[in-house]
Write a structure and sequence with these properties.
Layout: H1 3-11, H2 17-39, H3 56-67, H4 139-143, E1 150-158, H5 165-173, E2 204-205, H6 207-210, H7 214-219, H8 222-237, H9 243-246, E3 258-263, H10 268-278, H11 291-300, E4 306-309, H12 315-328, E5 334-341, E6 356-364, H13 365-370, E7 377-386, H14 390-399, E8 409-412, H15 413-420, H16 427-441, E9 443-444, E10 454-455, E11 465-471, E12 476-483, E13 521-527, H17 530-545, H18 552-562, E14 568-574, H19 577-588, E15 595-597, H20 613-623, H21 627-635, H22 642-645, E16 666-667
Parallel strand pairs: 3-4, 3-5, 8-11
Antiparallel strand pairs: 1-6, 1-7, 2-16, 5-6, 7-12, 9-10, 11-12, 13-14, 14-15
C-alpha cells in the first residue's frame, strides 16, 4: 500500500500507530534505495548503464530481430539470435532471455573439502543493502563473500499422485500418500516387474512454451523436459521472471546471475535409444546429464554456474551444498537447485522404486527481503562427506553458528519413501520439499510416531528447525539444516513521527470522494499462444475461488512484477475479485476481449520501447495512476519494468505465490523406441 493508504488506514483506526510508522519508514527507504539503484553504475568494460530503471529499449530491439526470423517459435522474452554453441554444448535453440556475451557456464568447482558452506551469522548480523533492487554501491561490496542465511523463495515439483507441492501437502497432511501401483497403461516402453511410485504422463511436454521444435523435444530425455517445466514453475512461484530475473546482476552488470545445480543419475532414455538403434532408428538423443542444467541456463539466459551432480540418492542435497557455496562466494545472486528421476526402461522398475522431480529457488535472505520475496523457509547450512554418519550432523550443526540447537524434525529418504518410493537421484527433492512444507505451514505430518498431522508447537524461543539427510548408494552423505522464517516484528520504540494529515476538502473526517471513479487495479496476464492464455486464466480462476485467495492489490502486483511478458496478452482494470473472476471466466471460455496477439511482428509498432524517454513516460503514467493508458501501451507491446516502478521491501511485499502458467502438453517419445504398456 502507498503512503496515502497507510495514513488513511491509521486515521480510521484499522492500522495501529506502530505498524503505520514501520510501513512508512520501509516505503521511504525503498524509494530512496530504488532511486540510488537507478543511478548505480554497472561495471562492464567501463560502460555506465542504468539498469534498475528499466530495460525496455533492449527488449524491444531484441523482439524485432527475433520476430524477423522466418518460422520463429514463440519465446518467453525477446532476444537477439543466440551465438552457435560449441561442438560439445547444446545445439542452438531459441532463447528465452537476453544473454549478453556468453550464455551458460560450463560448471563450477565444488565446495572446498567436504562441502563446507561456511559459518552462518544470525538474522541480526546479515547485511541489508536497503535497496529493493539489490544494487550494491561498489563492486567491492558486491564481491564480498556472503555470510548470511539463505532463503527458499520458490518451490515446485511433481510427485506420484500430486502434480505440485500444494497437492502433495494436502495428501500428506490427510495421511493419503500415494502408495505403490502398477505402471501407467499409457506409458511408452512398458514392461518390468513389480509395482512402483510412478508419475503420470511423463512422455508429455509443451515444446511451444519453451520455443523448442517438437522433433528436437522428442529426442530430449523426459527427465530434462520435466525438469524444464518444474524449474520454470519454481521461478514463477518466486515471482522471479522477466524484469525481476534481469535485476539479479553479476558484479559486472550482467543480468540473470543465477546458478543451476541439478541432481540426476538415471540414463534410461539412452538404453531405449540403443534398442531403437538396433532396430534401425538413427535419431539419437544426447548422452549425459549435463543437458539438464545447461539447457535451462541457455534457454533462460542464466549466467551463473550450471552443473549436474550424480552421487546417487544424495545428489540433490549435494547440489544444494554446491549452490550454497556459490552464493557464499558471490558466483551468482540466486541459485536453482533441483533434480529429476524417471523409470523409463523396464530394467529400472524394481519393486518399491519411484519417480519425482522438483526444484527450489534460493536467494541470500537479505536480498530476498529487500526484493519483497515470499520466504518459504531458511537454509542455515550443512555438510557433505563420504560415509558421514552422526559426525556429519554435528559438523553441519556447528557450521550454522554457535548456540544452534538440534532440529526438532528429521527428514530423510525413509520418511519420503511413503510418497515417492526409492526416487534415486531425486530423493533429496522429496526430502527437502517435505521439510520446507512443514516449516512453512508449522504443521508436523503423520509418521510412524504420529498417526495424524498435528500443529508444530515450540517449546521455547528458538525457531522451528528441520534437518534433511540423504546417503547415496556410494557412501556420499549430505546433511542440511533448515528453519522457519519468522519476520522480525517492528520496533515499538524510537518510531518516526507520523506526518500530519493534510486538510481534507470535506472538513477533515475520512477520505474525500474523488471527482471520478477510481481506476481500480491493473491485472496483466500473458502466454505464448491464445490457448495457453485461456488455460492459464482457468488456473488462476481456481485460485481466486479458493478460501486463501490473496487480496486483489497483492494478486495484481504479483502478476505485474513477477511474470515475464509474452506474446499473447490480456489486461483488465477491475475493482474487486468478483469482477476479475468474471473477466477470467470469459477469457477461459475463449472470449478474446481485451487480448492482444503480438506474434508475427505486431509488437510495439511505433518503436516506443527503444526510446530512452519511454521509461520516464511510463513512470509518470504510473505515478499519476493512468492505468488505462498503461494497459493499452502494454497490450501494444511496450513493456514496463514494473518491479522498478513499484519497489517495496519486506517479506511478501512484492510477490506472493500464484498458480504457474499452464503448459499444453503433447506426447513426445523417442522415434522407434516402441509404444504400449
Amino acid at each position: 500500500m502507498d503512503d496515502k493508504e497507510i495514513l488513511t488506514r491509521f486515521k480510521d483506526g484499522t492500522l495501529d500507530r506502530a505498524r503505520a510508522a514501520a510501513l512508512l519508514a520501509a516505503g521511504a527507504e525503498g524509494r530512496a534505495g530504488g532511486r540510488a539503484g537507478g543511478r548505480a553504475e554497472s561495471w562492464s568494460g567501463g560502460r555506465t548503464e542504468v539498469r534498475a530503471t528499466g530495460r525496455s529499449e533492449g527488449r524491444s530491439e531484441g523482439r524485432a530481430r527475433d520476430r524477423s526470423r522466418a518460422g520463429s517459435a514463440p519465446v518467453l522474452a525477446p532476444v537477439p539470435p543466440p551465438a552457435p554453441a560449441p561442438a560439445s554444448g547444446l545445439a542452438p535453440v531459441p532463447s528465452l532471455a537476453p544473454v549478453p556475451g556468453s550464455g551458460t557456464t560450463g560448471g563450477t568447482e565444488g565446495a572446498e573439502g567436504t562441502g563446507d558452506t561456511g559459518d552462518v551469522r544470525g538474522a541480526g548480523e546479515a547485511r541489508s543493502t536497503g535497496d529493493p533492487r539489490g544494487t550494491r554501491g561498489t563492486r567491492e561490496a558486491h564481491d564480498a563473500p556472503y555470510t548470511g542465511r539463505v532463503a527458499v523463495v520458490g518451490v515446485s515439483g511433481r510427485f506420484p499422485g500430486a502434480p505440485d507441492p500444494d497437492a502433495l501437502w494436502r495428501r500428506l497432511r490427510a495421511g493419503r500418500a500415494a502408495g505403490p501401483g502398477p505402471l501407467p497403461k499409457d506409458r511408452p516402453g512398458g514392461g518390468g516387474a513389480g509395482t512402483g511410485h510412478y508419475l503420470d504422463r511423463v512422455q508429455d511436454f509443451d515444446p511451444v512454451f519453451f520455443g523448442i521444435e517438437p522433433a528436437e523435444a522428442a529426442l530430449m530425455d523426459p527427465q530434462e523436459r520435466i525438469f524444464l517445466e518444474t524449474a520454470w514453475e519454481a521461478f514463477e512461484d518466486a515471482g522471479c521472471t522477466g524484469g525481476r530475473l534481469d535485476a539479479l546482476t553479476a558484479p559486472d552488470g550482467t543480468p540473470r546471475s543465477v546458478g543451476v545445480f541439478v541432481g540426476a543419475s538415471a540414463g534410461d532414455y539412452a538404453l531405449l535409444a540403443a534398442e531403437a538403434w538396433a532396430r534401425g532408428a538413427r535419431a539419437m538423443p544426447r548422452r549425459g546429464h549435463w543437458s539438464l542444467p545447461n539447457r535451462l541456463s541457455g534457454l533462460l539466459g542464466l549466467t551463473g554456474p550450471s552443473q549436474s551432480v550424480d552421487t546417487a540418492e544424495s545428489s540433490v542435497l549435494v547440489a544444494l551444498d554446491l549452490a550454497l557455496a556459490a552464493l557464499r562466494r558471490r558466483e551468482c545472486e540466486a541459485a536453482l537447485v533441483g533434480g529429476a528421476h524417471l523409470l523409463l526402461h523396464p530394467a529400472s522398475r524394481s519393486p518399491g522404486a519411484g519417480e519425482c522431480a522438483g526444484a527450489l529457488l534460493l536467494k541470500p535472505l537479505d536480498r530476498a527481503l529487500a526484493d519483497g520475496d515470499t520466504v518459504h523457509a531458511v537454509v542455515l547450512g550443512g555438510a557433505v562427506a563420504h560415509t558421514g554418519g552422526p559426525g556429519l550432523a554435528r559438523t553441519a550443526l556447528r557450521r550454522t553458528g554457535p548456540g544452534t540447537q538440534e532440529p526438532g524434525l528429521r527428514e530423510d529418504a525413509g520418511t519420503a519413501a511413503a510418497s515417492v518410493g526409492d526416487a534415486g537421484a531425486a530423493t533429496g527433492v522429496a526430502v527437502l520439499t517435505r521439510a520446507v512444507l512443514q516449516l512453512r505451514h508449522r504443521v508436523l505430518l503423520p509418521g510412524p510416531d504420529r498417526p495424524e498431522a498435528e500443529p508444530w508447537t515450540r517449546s521455547g524461543p528458538e525457531p522451528r528447525r528441520a534437518s534433511a539427510t540423504v546417503r547415496g548408494a556410494g557412501g556420499v552423505e549430505a546433511h542440511v539444516i533448515l528453519e522457519e522464517f519468522r519476520p522480525e516484528p517492528p520496533a515499538l520504540t524510537d518510531l518516526p513521527e507520523l506526518p500530519e494529515f493534510p486538510q481534507l476538502p470535506n472538513g477533515g473526517s475520512g477520505t474525500p470522494a474523488p471527482a471520478t471513479a477510481p481506476a481500480g487495479e491493473l491485472v496483466l496476464l500473458s502466454a505464448p499462444t491464445p490457448a495457453h492464455l485461456a488455460a492459464t486464466a482457468a488456473r488462476l480462476l481456481g485460485r481466486i475461488a479458493g478460501r486463501d485467495a490473496p487480496p486483489l492489490p497483492v494478486l495484481a502486483r504479483s502478476l505485474r512484477t513477477g511474470r515475464a511478458p509474452m506474446d499473447c496478452r490480456f489486461a483488465v482494470l477491475v475493482h474487486d475479485l468478483a469482477e476479475l473472476s468474471a473477466a477470467l471466466e470469459r477469457l477461459a471460455a475463449g472470449a478474446m476481449r481485451g487480448v492482444a496477439d503480438l506474434r508475427g511482428g505486431a509488437a510495439d509498432p511505433q518503436g516506443l520501447g527503444a526510446v530512452p524517454e519511454t521509461r520516464a513516460y511510463l513512470a509518470g503514467l504510473w505515478e499519476a495512476r493512468r492505468l488505462p493508458q498503461l494497459r493499452d501501451l502494454w497490450l501494444s507491446g511496450v513493456d514496463a519494468d514494473w518491479a522498478a516502478l513499484e519497489p517495496a521491501a519486506g517479506p511478501g511485499a512484492v510477490t506472493v505465490p500464484l498458480p504457474p502458467s499452464a503448459f499444453l502438453r503433447t506426447p513426445l517419445w523417442l522415434p522407434g523406441a516402441g509404444e504400449g504398456g
